[in-house]
Structure formats: structure tokens, C-alpha cells
Amino acid sequence: MSGLDFLTTRLETALGWGRKYSLFHYPFITACCGMEYMSAACAHFDIDRFGAGLTRFSPRQADLLLVVGTVSHKLAPVLKTVYDQMLEPKWVIAFGACAVSGGIYQNYAVVQGIDRVIPVDVYIPGCPPRPEMVLDGLMKLQDKIQHQKQDWRWAKKP
Amino acid sequence: METRIQREARPESMLINMGPSHPAMHGTIRVMLELDAERILNAEVEVGYLHRGFEKTCENKTYFNLLPYTDRLNYVSPLINNLGYAMTMEKMLGVGVPERAQLIRVLMSELSRVSDHLTCLAAMAMECGAFTVFLYMMKAREFLWDVIEFTTGARMTTSYIRIGGVRADLHPDWRGSLATAVRETRRVLKDVSGLLDKNSIFLGRTRGVGVISKEDALSYGWTGPCLRSTGIPYDVRKASPYLVYDRLEFEVPVGEFGDNFDRYRVRMREMEQSLRLLEQVAVLIPDKAPITGEPAIEPAEAIRVSRRQKTAARIRLSPNLEGSEKARYADLLTRDRPAAPGSAACGVVVPPKEDTYTTMEGLISHFLFFMNGHGIRPPKGDVYFSVEGGNGEVGFYIVSDGTDRPYRLHLRAPCFHVVSALEQLIKGRLLADLIPTFGSMNMIGGELDR
Amino acid sequence: MGKETLIDEIRTKLGEAVEGVLESFGDPVLTVRPGSLLSIMVALRAAPFDYAVLLDLTGVDFTAGEGRFELVYHLYSLSRNVRLRLKTSLPAADPRADSITGLWKNADWLEREVFDMFGVLFTGHPDLRRLLTYEGFEGHPLRKSYPWRLAQPRIPMKDKV
Predict the structure, then answer these.
(1) What are phi and psi of C55, to 5 degrees?
(2) I want to staple B445 with a disulfide (CB 3.0 to 4.6 A). Which of B27, B112, B391, C103 is the partner?
(3) What percent of chain A has pLDDT over 70?
């Protein structure tokens, strides 16, 4: 069935291309990294050039969860709820050292990395990361989206 | 787990939660509202979603090590937090700061203050719908951050202002980048003024909204631009001048009614005053640091020179980022402390690298600065010192028990007191009034929750 | 207003209620007994002292060495541009103090924070509950007896990938 394989590969590429260049992100902003997120999103280091410029302030409408800043134990259930409310396909970027691993805070109040709560696709280290690093991380995510197995659920028969 | 507002709510009203993750919540704060159609009957504010254990962490770190934690408090004006901490420690240790370092500190403080106000007003305007204002102000902020970055190495959390002075000297072309930053910020302020000052939508949302009286503001412990918007001209830089502020000319703008628009205008005019201060300081800082002796060289060259067997020249690194901690200033103090038996007297600054790597005494003093149990050990007692931050009076209260770690370190956060008044300010108003009111308060989570 | 005259004024006007007056790195500090705290605060807020602003309220845990909690108040008088620090010691076993929410409105949140971090109870506070930590958090983080790294997660944490 090589004809069908050729079609599905082309379709997967097309789906990947479409998904990676039209990311609607939900900025889950908590702390200092939010300032660098604002810089990355604004005119100087435009994130809109990568197609990820539109911010959706509802998890139902977003497909990229950008966890920006420190997540404390008080906030962890909220993060889980927001992640659960998002629809497939969804990706998560851990932005900043605190989201990646707890950062400089290793104490009673801080979750040591959001991958203890939700699965993470791309980690962007830095305290705070420069906007260029943010864009680099976004490009890595776009690579990942392009090459991952695309979600065919709407095509499968029950 | 019923909250107070759930207990007190009337059965016919609607409870709305503006959750910790919300675009207009400036980070993480939860506001629970009891609504009757659009009118807010009752409000409850829940904070603590960014509580990162700053004060407990500081009890476990040495005085030198905890400096990066202070950056992350008010993270839109991090150098002012550094400054507050450094000056509190200098008060406790009795250490003086060289003149050039004081001027550089004022320069960095004012740059931070302008970026704080820019961020606050940009976010407030964006939430009211003026997205262009946000983009313009972020553009101006980039120029300011360029100046900070070329000198300190980092755009935001710099850990640049240290106990005893600053980390390194200004970068070689600081006058040019500072002039560009001031010019661009002035242009942006003019544009934003034109966009918002007489804008009927903006005025409708901010004039007469979120009004607080002078007595209430004082009773809530408000300081900074929010207090000045009610008409009380309290500014720590004028009331108890520190650094060189008593020699500089600037005004303290005050508002009249204590509403959102006054807070916006006070911040705009404060930015103009800060730009004025920047220009004055730029004139006062001499071009060359008072250097005595041989010319300064870069580290790579220093390594090459030190390897030559027969060199008798004394190596001296350049005072910018690449180089030495030790100021080339004649009056830098190394404190006379009751030194432990057998140890060399160590100071409050990191010993210069060129001595550390070339002489035995330098190496010893380097280790004595960094070893556990040694280093900066202030005398027993407690001290409080405050500086004027972007939000008001930033105070540090430090209790020392004579060891190298603080026994207790407490931050007097200005926006803690401002936000505690939010429930009163929005009661009885419409839901949409909450957004500009909260935006004009400039809540910074790192400072509020510590 | 010189510091000596300020301290003398306080001593003469408040007299017996004040336990001690000292100076710490140039700042005037009053120590008072917990029982007379409220009356001294009322007197300080009124004329002629006129301390209109409660800048800060915090606690220090001296239970290990000296068996007490210390509450530290910072007051500021706008009209006279002077600051004052007030300290009072509470017993470690049952730390209670009077609430000053009737005098300054920000005492509400400040006292909630001290309760949260140290476990000090304020009698007369309208709504004393945790502020910075969450309901279900056991213990008081800033006490020296609370381990620095003891986390109490609200939802189960997965193992590190």
C-alpha cells in the first residue's frame, strides 16, 4: 500500500507544518521571567514572526502552555487544572530555571520543576533567559512538532 | 475549604473567581468577587501564589550569597532591591562607599525606576485595551536595558550593586548608550502622553475610579507613587536622602484625587524626573575612574604577562566587567574587624582577582572571604534601612547574631500594603473598574509574596 | 528632631509602660511588655507623637536560645519625619499579642502574615487565617524548628524524568 503511505506522509508533513506555524500560546506567567516573555513578545524580539504571536487567554483555545516563572506548591493544582483543560494536541514549554528545575529556590514552597506536575516538551533554561533563547526554544519546539507522529484521532473509526 | 466570601455571599449574587492565572492579574493573585450583574458587592483577595520562601532561604545563605535572591524580589526594578540590601548591610557594618560607586548606584537606580514605571503603565494600558502603548513602552525599556546590560552583563536580574560599592565600572561607551536611552524614552513618553492623557476612553476608565483618601492611604501604609497620587509628597529620597540625592535636583510629583488617573500621571511625571536625574548624574560622573599607576589590561593579556618568568610589572585588570572587583579608588574601605585568631582581616568586598591569582596573601584573603563561617560577619544587633523603590519604600530589616548568615532577614514590601487596600477600593464599583485599579497599583508578585 | 529628644519625649510621656529604650546602629528602639502594647500604640498614634504610618510588622524566632518570640513594629511619623522601632517579647509556649487592626488598616494583612509564618495569635483580629501559605499547610515556616526544605505538596508530585 505504498500509495497510501505516500499520502499519509504528505498529510503528516502538512499537519505538522500547519501546527507548528500557528501556535496559540497560553502564557502562565508567575514571576520575573514574565518580563523577558514580554520582551520576547514585543516589537524588538518579535515572537509573532514565528507564528506564535497570538496569545489566547483561555486554555480551551490554546495549544501551547508557556509556563513562565516559579511555580509554588500553592499554585501547582492551578497549573494542573489549566493543563487538563487544554485540548489535544498540546505542548508545554518550561520557561526559565524555576520552571525547569526549581531554579535557585530549593525550599518548602517551590515545586522543583514543573515536570513533576505536567509533562514538558521543551525546557528553556536561564534566569531569566534572553529573548533570543526563548525564540531558540520555540524553534526547537517547532522542529519537534514537525517530526512527531501527528494525531490522527479524528480520522480513526471508533 | 470554603473561603470567606463563599460564607458571606448572598444566595442571589454571582461568585466570580479571577484566578491566579489570569492575564490581568500581573502574575499570580486571586480575586474572588461577589457580583450583582456587573456591580461588585464584596471582594476577597488571596495572595501567596508566588511565595518562594525568600526569608527562610536567606537565613541559610551567607550575606554575600543571598544577593541574587534580592534581585528577584521586585523584578522590574531589580537594582533597587540590590541597593536596599547593600545599603542596609553597609549601615550595619559601618562601611563607606566611594563617590564614583555612589553615582553609578544612582544611575542604575533611576534606570530601574524608569523601567518599573514603564512596565506598570504598559501593562495597565494594555489591559484597558491600548495595546500600542504597551509596544511603545517595551521598546523604550529595551534601550534602558541595553545600558544596564552593557555594564552589568544581564538585562534584568543583575546582582550588580554589592556591599561596599558596585561590581564593575561602567562600560566604555556608557555616555552614548545612556543618551540614546534617554532620548528614546522621552520620545515614547511624549507619544504615550499624546495617546492617553486626553483619551476619553482611558479617562472614563480611570478618572474617579479607585479613589482613596489621604487618611485611608496613610492608614494602609501606602508609600511611593500610590501615596503621592493622593497628595502627600512623601519620598524617601527627599525625606531621608541617601547616596547623592541631596545634591541632585528633582521634584516629587503629587496628584490630587487619589484615583487611577492620578496614579498614572504621577508615574509619567516621575519618569520625567528620573530622566532629569539621569542627565545630572551623567554630567557628574567623571570620564575616568581615579586610577593611579600602570594602565589597566584585559585578563587574557594579564595571563600572558604573568606567565613571563622575568616580569616585574604589577598586573592590573581593567575595572569593567572583565576585570577587577577592587576599585581603583583610594578610599575603598576594608573593615577593621575583630578577626578570628590566626586569620587575616578580611573586608566586605571580594578581593581583587589579580592579587588572588598571583600572591599568597591574596589567595588567603579570597578564601577567608568565601569560607563557611568566615567572610562578612556583622556585629550582633538589628538594623532597618529603606530606599525609594518603584512602588514605594523598600525596607530591609536584618537581625544578625554575629555569624556569617543572617538570623532573620525581612523585606518591607511596598506593594504588600498597597494591595491590602484593593478590597476596599473595588467594593461597590463595576467589574471592569477592577482592571485599571489593580493595574495602577503595580503589584509585583515577587515583592508581595516574597 | 534629634534622637535624644525623641527618646526623652517618649520616656516622659509614656513612662511606666515602656520597658526599655535603646539604640541599635543609630535607630531608636523601644521595648514594651505585651500587655501594654495596645495602649502604647494608641498613644503613639495620637498627637503629639503622630505616628500615622505603620511601616512594618514582623516577627523573629528566638525560641532556641532565649525561649521567646519577638514582634518588631516599625512606625513612621509623617509630620515629624521620624521613625521608631518597637519590640515586644512573647513567650514561646503560647505567643499571643493584641491586634492593632483598629489603629492601622494594614495591620490586618501584616498580622495574618506573622500568624502564618510564626504562629503568633492576635486577639481581636477580625479574620486571622493564613496569608502566604495555603490551608492544609501544617506548621509555621519561619520558625527555626521548621525544616527549610520540608515541602508539603498539594497534589502528588511525579518522579523526576
Answers:
(1) -70, -45
(2) B27
(3) 93
C-alpha C111/C-alpha A69 separation (Å) is 28
Residue C128 half-sphere exposure toward CB, CA atoms < 13 A: 19
Is B220–C105 a contact, with Cβ atoms under 8 angstroms apart? Answer: yes
When CB atoms are compared, the residue of B49, B122, B156 closest to A32 is B156
Evaluate whether residue B338 is within a structural domain: no
How far is it, in rounded angstroms, from Cα B382 to Cα B92?
A: 8
Q: Which fold has domain C3-123?
A: Beta Polymerase; domain 2 (3.30.460)
Cβ C72–B397 below 8 Å, yes or no?
yes
Please answer yes or no on whether B72 and A31 come within 8 Å at the CB atom: yes
Q: Do A115 and C158 touch (CB under 8 A)?
A: yes
Contact residues, chain C, for B29 at CB < 8 Å? none
Ranges of each domain in chain C: 3-123
Domains identified in chain B, total number? 2
Query: What domain range includes position B8?
Result: 4-46
Specify if B394 maps to a domain.
yes
For A35, the closest of B22, B52, B119 (CB atoms) is B119
Residue position matching grid coordinates 518580563:
A35
Whether chain C has a CB inside 8 Å of the CB on A77: the answer is yes
Residue C131 is nearest to which of B47, B56, B223, comparing CB atoms?
B47
Tell me the three-class secondary structure of A58-101, residue by residue: CHHHCCEEEEECCCECCCHHHHHHHHHHCCCCCEEEEECHHHHH
Q: What is the pLDDT of residue A95?
A: 93
Give residue B9's pLDDT.
81
Residue B203 and residue B88 share a domain: yes
Query: Using CB atoms and an 8 Å cut-off, which of residues 181-240 of chain B contact chain C?
Result: 216, 218-221, 223, 232, 234, 239-240
Let me know whether B199 and B145 are in one domain.
yes
Instruction: Please answer yes or no on whether B68 and A31 come within 8 Å at the CB atom.
Output: no
On whether both B130 and B243 belong to a single domain, the answer is yes
Domains in chain A, please, with CATH? 23-147 (3.40.50.12280)
**Residue B98 confidence (pLDDT):** 82
Across the interface, whether the CB atoms of A107 and B445 are under 8 A apart is answered no
Q: What is the reported pLDDT for A71?
A: 93
C143 Cβ under 8 Å from any chain A Cβ: no
Quote the pLDDT of residue C44: 87
Cα C89 to chain centroid, rounded? 10
Q: Which residue has the cell 550569597?
A: B65
- Stated pTM of the model: 0.90
Name, in order, each residue with C-beta under 8 angstroms of B98's C-beta and a sequence gap of 6 or more: B165, B327, B329, B331, B332
Q: How far is A121 from chain C (nearest CA, A)?
A: 12
Q: With CB atoms and an 8 Å threshold, state whether B383 touches C85.
A: no
| Mean pLDDT of each 10-residue bin along chain B, 450 residues long | 76 88 80 90 91 92 91 92 93 84 92 94 91 92 92 90 85 89 94 92 91 92 93 92 91 92 94 94 82 62 69 64 42 34 50 74 80 84 92 93 91 93 90 91 90
By C-alpha distance, the chain C residue nearest A71 is: C153
Interface predicted TM-score (ipTM): 0.93
